[in-house]
Structures are given as structure tokens and as C-alpha cells.
Amino acid sequence: MPKKKKIQRKSIDKIKTIPKPKASIEELQESRNGGQIALRGYSYQFLYSCYLMLSCKDENTVFNLEGIEDIDKIVSTSDEQKTMHIQLKYSENKQDASFMKSVLKNFLEAYLLDKNRAFKLVYDFSVAKGHLSKLVNNILDSDELQYWKATVDEIKNENPQWNWHQLDFDDFISKISYENIKKAVLAERVEVALIENYDITTDNIKLFANSIKMFCFEKMETRSAVSLNDLKHQIELVKFDISKGAENPAHGWIEKVNFNELTDQESNYYEGKKAIPMDIVKGLPVSRVLLEKDIRTSVNNYMVTVIKSSSGQGKTTLALKTQYCLQKEYTPYQLINCSDRGALRHIVEYFHARIRLGEKPLILIDNLDAHLSEWNQLVQLMQSDVKYNYKILITSRENDWYNYAGDLSNIHSMNIIKPMLSKEEAAAIFNTLQQAGHIHPKIKDWKHAWNQIADKKLLIEYVYLLTHGEMIAERISSQMCEIGRNETGSIKFELLRQVCFADVCGIRLPTKKLLRSLAPRTFYDIGQILKSMTDEFLVHISQDGDYIEGLHPVRSRHIVEYLHEYYPLEETAYNITKLADLQDFSVLFSHYPEFSFDKESFYSDVVNEWWNLEDLKCFVSAIRGTFSGSVMQYFKNNEELFNEANNRGGLFLIATEVCPFAQFREIDESVKTLEQMKEIVPNN
Asked: What is the pTM of this model?
């Protein structure tokens, strides 16, 4: 019999397929989605864990998160302890029987160590017809059992070191249960479980849900056990935080910025006033794409972002647009007052409570002034006590930053952005307003408009010119002429002098004080006069009616200049000292050095009016403001010289010699370093 030839199997090397290079950066980004897929699976596990624990009513149940399996559910009685290991699987792809092998392997390893354990697969994916479909639906005929026995045998061959003599296949298969639950419904079921099992019936249900999610996240991170008592305790903490919210005095200093309250009221945004949330929602402010992107990036990368520039550059608008764009990630708040260092702890506690409730506050501190003077100390406390899940956004004029910035070296993470209207941005703004139909017929091109405001480059002036066909000063002049022809003109002028001068100085005037001072000067109803002036876009009254202010410092400055052309400015400045709140004295007096009037006579009148040896608070505040304002004004008047000195390395010498304390009149001596240096190096 002839020998059979051995047939040798030739090994054929598999031809490796070289992947095609990505055609664009967008395609590359789309292909690198491993992290996104992992996060989807993780969030499914996270949500189901919250739902399972909140749905449980048995006081004897404990949940180990990230234990042997994703969730280990342990029920203890006086006789025994029952444990179920739960594995969660999420996929957007359809799965077949091959998927189940890794799940069975994990379950088997635990089963062979303790046959009393139960197992469960919770999944959200489409199941292909065939072996897996029959398994999860418990349709196990002899063919199906044979298939899964073969799968177990494969696992056995791959892991011979396990204790396989413990295996009872029928017992093992019977201990596995299956639950198909969609990720999309889990968030809602968490809230339903809170309502049904914990009697949460308030409008704050989402706060409770977010708090439980944060609680579960921390427990998963530490692989800790969670009992029903732990859940109840966490819910009670939330109830306590909510109940004490109004008792915390900071409740009155903090407002939630509301971008949902749309009204049919016609907006006067283009009249040259400060932006409000409703203006942002209606899309009225022009887009400043690069600048807005820089601010959002800064908020994401730094704990504190400062928008710093002169009045009229759109700081408040930029800040509100940032909050609006980021509101899906952050909860927008505005801090109205933080002037008392002793009360800062209340503000920290308020925001710490909001963070524990699952919020990420984005806190706006708008228009830095005396009412917000302790912001630096607040940030330092937040850094040490809260640490994460919040951001702070500050707007400030240059003068106010000088007065209230404080020691910036103590702030760990801060970025300053200085918006300034550029020629390129002016062109883009014109095109945007033109497309929206807001350009006035008189304006034919952006270049002519730009040339009219190019010296100061103020956004508010530019937008007003484009939308009204005239400069703010021209409009103010027209309005003042119209008011002057009215029989109530004189009292309106006096009201405007005082309100707008105070606005330029960065303060508001108490409504009652102002009306009380003006009422004796007219036979007309002063309240009705005030209402007509708000309707004419001349002044603004606070929501509570307690304060009155100008629409915008830039607009107010035009009114002040017009109404004081022949009226003594020092008279208005003096009257304002009688109306301003004591807490505003420092701010008010810091601006007086900006104005040209007889300061010596003015300050003498102030001292004669207010001097009281038993109470010098107002004088201390006034002196502090005057001193800081004088220094700033001196710097502005000599800014070019200071810059040159800095470039030559002599800034310290200049600052030392111009300091008021460099002259000692009592002994007729003064610092003369610069004079001596000039003699030594005459050409420097």
C-alpha cells in the first residue's frame, strides 16, 4: 500500500492592511473617540448605581460600589448573608453571543470561590438573534445549554488553575439574571425614586438628584460601601442646606442670573446703557468672536478671570455672554455685595452648599467698587475652603482695579483680559449690524464711523453711532435742548446733574434722599418727573426702587459736561456728598481728582459741613478715596514719563522722589536723587 504523502500546511502570512491616512483634522478628531465611548459606559454604570440604591427599601441592604463587580448588593439577615454581583454593560452596537464570554468568565471566577453568590447582567444595547438572545430571555433548550457549556469549557481551558471541581453548570446558569434598562430613562427614574421613597416633593428635586450623584461618585472613587442610612443622611444634608439658605445673610448678596425670563418689553439696549441678561438672550449685543472665545477659554483654564478696561468697552456684556454660553456646564450667579470682610464666610458657605448640591457656580463680580472691595479675600477663602467646581468672573474699570485689586500674589489661578475695540473688530461689528438691519440710514460705511470714535475707541460710542446715525454727545445735546423747553426742565436738569455726576464717580444715589432734596424746588410731582425720565432713557431706578443711577458712565459723562458748561461743577460735587451713602464715600472722593474745579475751596466746604470729632468715619473714607484718586490722576497725567522711566530702569527712583513723604519740611530736607544723577550723567 503506497504511503500517504504528508500534506504540509503552508503558513500564509496575513497581509496587514495599512490604514488610510486621515484626510482632515476633523476626521482625526472623530476617529479618536475611545475616551468618549468609555465615558458613556461609565455614566451608565454611575446612573444605574444611583437608581438601584434609591429604589431599595430594605434597611438590611448594603451596596459596595466598584467591588468584585461594578455593584455588589449584599442583603444581611440574622440567618444569612446574600450577595449579588452586578455587572453593567453599555454599547451603541448590537451584541451577539461572543460578547458574553468575558461576562461569564468574571462571574465564574467568583462562583468557583463561593457557590452561594448570585449574578446579574444589566445592559443597554441591542441583542442579536441567536444564542445571546435566548440566554437573556431564559429560553434554554438542550441546544442552547450545549452551546453555553462549550463556552464555559473554553474558559476552563484558558484558566486551568481555577477550582473547577466546584462547578455545577446548571446551578451556575440558574444564578444569573438579566435586566435590560435604557440609559435615557435612568436620570428620570432617579428622580422618581427620590419622590416615591424619600418623599421629595419640592421644586428642588434636581438638586437632590445631583447631590446623590456626587455622593455616589465619591463612593465609587473610594470603593466604599453605601447603606440606606448613608443615603438618608445625604438627603437630610441637602434638606438642611436648602432650609438654611434664606437664613444665611449671603442670600441677600447673591443673585442667580436668569437667562430664561424673556419678555415682550422693547429693549433699549442700543440707547447706550448697560447690558442685562434679556439683551443677551435676544442676541442684541454684537458678536466679538475672538474676544468671547478668549474669555471662555480663560474661564475653563483659570479659577479667576478679570475683564479690565475703561468704561464703554463692553465688559458687562462680555461677562454676561460668557455666562450665557457656558450655562450648560455652569450655574450663573452674580455677587452684589462683599464689602464686609467679617461676613465673607457666609458667601463661601453659600457657594459650598450649592456645589454640594451638584452645581458648578460661575460667579460674576461686575463693576468692581467699594461694595465689592473684599473680593480678593473672598477668592483666597474659596481657594482654601472650596477648591474646585466653581469659577469667578470679574469686570473692572482701570481706576477701580487700582483701588480694589489687592495683593494679587495670593491668588493662585488668575488671568486678566483687556478688551479694546480694534479697527478689524469695528469692521466686523458693522457687517454684523448691517446683516441684522440695525445700521442707521445715515451710516454708509464703517470707516467713516470708525474715524469719528478712533481717538477713544469706545465700543458703546461706536455701536450708538452705527445704530442712531449720530454720536451720543449729539443725542444728549438734542435731548437737553428738548428738556430745556419744557416747564419741568430746570428740576430735570438738577436731577440729571446729580445722578449722572454720581454715575461718573461710580456710585448710585439713594432715591428717597434725592427726591427729598429736590421736592422743595418744584410744584410738580417729583415722582412723576422721575418716571418720565426713566421712560426717556435718561436714568435707571433699581429693581427695589431704593437707588437711582445713570444708564452708563460714558453717557452720563456727556450729560455732566453739557449741564456744567455754565454751571459750577463743584456745586454738584458738594451736593453729592450730602446724598451719597457713607459706604460710597471712598469711591466718590477717589474720582474728584479727575475734575477741574477749585479743590481747596471745595474741600474746605466739605470739612466745615461734616466735621465731627466724635465720628470721623466719613472723613477717613473721604481721605482714603482722595489719596488713591490723586495718585492715579497723577499717574495718568504723567503716564508717558512713567513709561519712559520704566524703559530706562528708573521707575523706582521716580516713584521714590515724587512720593509726598520724600520731602521733610520740618527740617528743610528732601530726596534729590534725580537732581544729583542729572549732574553726574547729564545726557541720561
From this structure: 0.61
